[in-house]
Write a structure and sequence with these properties.
The complex is a heterodimer of chains A (386) and B (544). Chain A is an alpha/beta fold and 386 residues long. Helices cover 34% and strands 15% of the residues of chain A. Chain A contains eleven helices and twelve strands. Chain A has helices at 11-26, 88-101, 114-124, 138-146, 155-158, 218-245, 254-263, 273-282, 315-324, 328-337, 373-383, and strands at residues 78-84, 105-111, 132-135, 150-151, 173-185, 211-213, 249-250, 268-269, 271-272, 288-291, 301-309, 341-342. In chain A, helix 2 links the parallel strand 1 and strand 2 (105-111). In chain A, helix 3 (114-124) runs parallel beside helix 4 (138-146) and helix 7 (254-263) crosses helix 8. The radius of gyration of chain A is 21 Å and the shape is globular. Chain B is mostly helical and 544 residues long. In chain B, 74% of the residues lie in helices and 0% in strands. Chain B has 25 helices and no strands. The longest helix of chain B is centred in the N-terminal third of the chain and has 34 residues, at 69-102. Chain B is globular. Chains A and B meet through helix 2, strand 2, helix 3, helix 7 and helix 8 of A and helix 13, helix 19 and helix 24 of B.
Chain lengths: 386, 544
């Protein structure tokens, strides 16, 4: 493995763009959402400062297009503590990049599971050292917001992201997205064998003992929550019971579900879209691909996101750090390195994936409703899934 | 180090005369009692948080939750698992100890280390390796495929959890039983043989009563470990107590999780009481006189097969899986950040060594008082140190997050609090082994030093301490190893940015970067293996 060259700009150019960028940022970043390049009148327009990471992707090369460069965002200075439920393998490089970009900015990241960190922040109470919480799902952000532990993000941060991907009260914002999908083994099934309707799975006898799920995983519980919101508890209970009767196999996480499908241990499952891409990135020849259900709970779109905490003593810095997660460079990084859906317009996903507007998520359910996992866990336990 | 024993040197002198007899019923010196009680109170502190949270649930709801069929079911599941794993560990650990101590088994030194080593493998790595290896189309099936093996049976559920937990906890029974067998006077067995007892009968009537306390002590660790383990039930998909607690924490039901944890503590107390009963009146060991070893004769091959299959299953399966991860390497993008760094080793070894040292200081008064005095304070203090061991690390971790941020903010997320958390979890391992050593010290020896004009604490320092040093070191080594592999409390309490081998394993493994998990995991095993040598060799036994 070769060391990554962060492609850091010279200090002089940074200062030059920094000034104009600061002004542009103060003027508010409007007009970004219609895909125009904005502000910064340096000689090469809205130039990104370089790609984060190797710049190579298992799915081919690409350059940064669209979005707002970090150079056009306010400079960061001071010290920040981030509690990150997203793993270091996925976001460490990005955080390091932001840390290296500013001489007098240093960020400390505490990595652990998202739920563990929510429990930790709630248990810490007003003694929490955390400034920013960065999470794998909207549910844990929603929990903190409900507990009154968040402070609203400023409009210029929120406006970078489409409305449906952030909290209506502005308490948190999504930073990248993930779609619920149906991974399946291409040696055993063809696309036409996979139902386009999530409710058809329990009756698909051909899948007996062949389906894998990870019921303790937050994204799966968010999917069950969506089903409750859309169809009610009774229908959800029947679906879960139907899957149990079909002999569904339980795994501890969805990466293992996808691995098991690629291994042929099972042949179909329920998982976030990027787990499939991640197995494929490691084993290009694996007989594994992605299917989507149509406009039902099986195809909800959830986000990883961030919020600033009420215990922070530097709200502006915390909010501006979150803003950097929505920069062109960060969004490109999510697409190329973690195989997620960028949430800022103009940055497309990579790999064998439809564009964000080609997805068909269900109508009538929003991300905040997915935050209520308590009732879902009760119901799942009641049926005997947990 | 000895500051613990300094108090009351002069005025305790009169007590010390009585207390020198191990069966003396006199109360221990006040200073020692206080030290012992203080340690017990400290390690019980985290329970305060549990009680507080459980009160938030409300009595009516608490009763309703506790008596739900589902709760009773996981209760029964956990009980069954504890009984099965403990019984299986005795069936594996005691014969292994007998074979490696009392018989002419070939390569005894090698087997002694080999069958002790599974203790250093974190159970979640063991469980994961077994699932990976034995799935219907796992690694093993792919190896056997040319031989026409279509699919292997699943290892999940009760059987899988029992198998994995037994393989990684039987060394507790093995190590304690082995120590007892080594210090046993075998001339008694010879005497029984001359009285026309068969070998089996001699074992049952002479050896068993002698080693029973040691087997009970080892089994206690097995039972409590099984009760508190998170990883194995989760990976083996078995609905034990810890798994339900885990699900509750995951959905932010901290109060219900606390309630379940208190139930877990209640079960722990039952197990502790049961062990006290079994332990009964212990022998005070004299020096063992070893006679000839038992000749295995035609049993040699089966005996070797038994040792080989136990060590093989427990060690080769995870090592092989880690090996394949290592060879496959970091095939994934984005894993550059997980590259290996030597500081992880230093951090791991540093906190584990500090924990072992603190645990030794804490264990001395508790073990001394428990070994030399019968009484409520002595017994309660010793038993109290076991509670933290039986409570899952995630619960201890969160409890100390609460206590740290509320009452001790300067030490929150510093190494001081992290080491304290480890001590709460692992202190009994030092107490148990030290107490056994104190019991083996002939009380006449410190008495002789007293008649030569030494103060009680002087006699302790110059006579007793050197005699118990091997037991103390053994206990410290056990604490060291278990600290090295502890994960949940580390994630909650380590200073931000402080990375250990085990947090690196977790970071890589939890995101599916198995190649990156292999290196720290293998190093963890190597370092732990070395300290295992300390445990095995500290009984004055040459491990070459």
């Amino acid at each position: 493995m070769e060391r990554n060259d962060f492609g850091r700009p010279t200090r002089r150019r940074l200062v030059a763009t920094g000034v104009t960028a600061g002004i542009a940022a103060l003027a508010g970043c409007n007009g970004l959402l219609d895909g125009e390049s904005s502000g910064g009148d340096s000689e090469n327009g809205s130039q990104a400062i370089g790609q984060i990471g190797s710049g190579r992707s298992p799915f081919g090369e690409r350059s940064i297009e669209g979005g707002t460069s970090m150079t056009e965002m306010p400079d960061l200075s001071g010290e920040l503590t981030v509690y990150s439920g997203r793993g270091e393998a996925l976001v460490g490089e990005l955080v390091q990049f932001i840390d290296d970009l500013y001489d007098d900015f240093s960020v400390q990241v505490r990595y652990a599971g998202s739920s563990d960190l929510v429990n930790q922040i709630l248990t810490e109470g007003d003694g929490s050292p955390a400034d920013v919480f960065y999470s794998v799902n909207a549910g844990s952000l929603g929990t903190l917001a409900e507990e009154g532990r968040t402070v609203a993000l400023p409009d210029e941060v929120l406006e970078l992201v489409r409305e449906e991907f952030r909290d209506p009260d502005g308490q948190w914002t999504g930073t990248s997205g993930r779609a619920r999908t149906v991974p399946y083994n291409t040696d055993q099934w063809s696309a036409s064998d996979i139902p386009g309707d999530i409710y058809a799975f329990p009756d698909a006898e051909r899948f007996a003992d062949q389906v894998g799920w990870a019921p303790t995983y937050g994204s799966f519980q968010a999917f069950v929550t969506a089903m409750r919101v859309l169809k009610g508890d009774q229908r959800t209970r029947e679906w879960l019971q139907g899957m149990l009767d079909l002999g569904v196999q339980e795994y501890t996480d969805e990466f293992l579900v996808c691995q098991a499908i690629a291994d042929g241990e099972i042949s179909v499952g329920f998982a976030n879209h990027y787990y499939i891409q991640r197995v494929l990135a490691g084993r290009g020849e694996a007989p594994l691909t992605t299917a989507f259900t149509n406009g039902d709970a099986g195809s909800i779109f959830n986000v990883a996101g961030a919020c600033t905490l009420d215990t922070t003593d530097n709200r502006e810095l915390a909010a501006n750090f979150v803003r950097h997660l929505l920069s062109a460079e960060a969004q490109d990084y999510f697409a190329r390195e973690t195989f997620e859906y960028p949430l800022v317009s103009g940055v497309d996903p990579v790999g064998d994936l439809p564009r964000i507007d080609e997805l068909n998520p269900p109508e009538g359910v929003d991300l905040t409703q997915l935050a209520d996992l308590e009732g879902t866990v009760d119901l799942m336990r009641d049926v005997g899934v947990l | 180090m000895d500051a613990e024993h300094a108090p009351g040197t002069d005025d305790a002198a009169s007590d010390a005369d009585d207390s020198s007899s191990p069966f003396g019923g006199s109360p221990p010196p006040l200073g020692l009692s206080l030290a012992s009680a203080t340690v017990a109170a400290l390690v019980l502190l985290p329970l305060v948080w549990l009680v507080r949270l459980a009160f938030d649930v409300g009595v009516a709801e608490a009763v309703a939750l506790s008596t739900r069929p589902e709760t009773l079911e996981v209760f029964a599941n956990s009980a069954a698992l504890v009984v099965a794993v403990t019984a299986a560990s005795i069936l594996v650990g005691v014969p292994l100890a007998y074979l490696t101590v009392r018989t002419d088994l070939p390569l005894r030194q090698f087997w002694t280390v080999a069958v002790s080593l599974p203790l250093v493998i974190p159970s979640y790595i063991g469980a994961f390796a077994f699932v990976t290896a034995f799935g219907p189309r796992g690694a093993l099936q792919r190896l056997l495929a040319p031989l026409g093996v279509e699919s292997l049976p699943r290892l999940y559920g009760f059987v899988g959890a029992t198998l994995v937990l037994t393989l990684y906890t039987y060394p507790y029974v093995y190590i304690t039983t082995r120590a007892a067998l080594k210090s046993m006077d075998t001339t008694l067995v010879e005497a029984a043989r001359t009285l026309r007892h068969s070998r089996w009968e001699a074992f049952r009537r002479v050896t068993v009563p002698q080693i029973r306390p040691a087997v009970a002590a080892g089994s206690l660790f097995v039972a409590l470990y099984t009760l508190s383990d998170f990883g194995t039930p989760a990976i083996m998909r078995f609905d034990a107590f810890t798994r339900v607690i885990f699900v509750e924490f995951n959905s932010f039901g901290r109060d219900f999780a606390a309630l379940l944890s208190l139930q877990l503590v209640a079960v722990t107390l039952l197990i502790l009481a049961a062990e006290s009963r079994i332990r009964g009146d212990e022998q005070v060991y004299g020096g063992g006189r070893a006679t000839d070893r038992v000749r295995l004769g035609r049993w040699k091959l089966p005996a070797l097969g038994f040792c080989g299959s136990v060590a093989g299953l427990a060690l080769v399966v995870p090592l092989a899986i880690l090996g394949t991860w290592f060879v496959r390497g970091a095939s994934n993008v984005g894993s550059e950040t997980l590259a290996f760094d030597v500081s992880y080793v230093l951090n791991s070894v540093g906190v584990a060594a500090a924990t072992a040292a603190v645990a030794a200081v804490f264990a001395l008064p508790v073990a001394y008082v428990a070994a030399h005095h019968r009484g409520t304070v002595a017994t309660l203090a010793e038993r109290a140190t076991y509670v933290g061991y039986a409570v899952p690390g995630v619960v201890i971790g969160l409890a100390l997050v609460y206590l740290g941020t509320s009452y001790a903010r300067p030490v929150y997320q510093t190494l001081y609090l992290l080491v304290f958390a480890y001590v709460v979890r692992f202190l009994p391992q030092a107490v148990g082994s030290l107490r056994a050593s104190f019991l083996r010290v002939d009380p006449k020896l410190p008495e002789a030093a007293r008649t030569l004009g030494r103060t009680p604490s002087g006699a302790f320092r110059s006579v007793t301490l050197p005699l118990v040093a091997p037991g103390l070191l053994g206990g410290m080594a056990l604490v060291f190893l278990t600290t090295m592999k502890e994960l949940p409390a580390t994630l909650f309490l380590a200073p931000t940015g402080f990375e250990t081998l085990v947090t690196r394993v977790w970071s890589a493994y939890s995101q599916g970067y198995f190649g990156r998990a292999a290196v720290p995991a293998l190093i963890l095993l190597a370092v732990s293996g070395l300290s295992m040598l300390v445990i095995v060799s500290q009984e004055g036994y040459d491990v070459k």
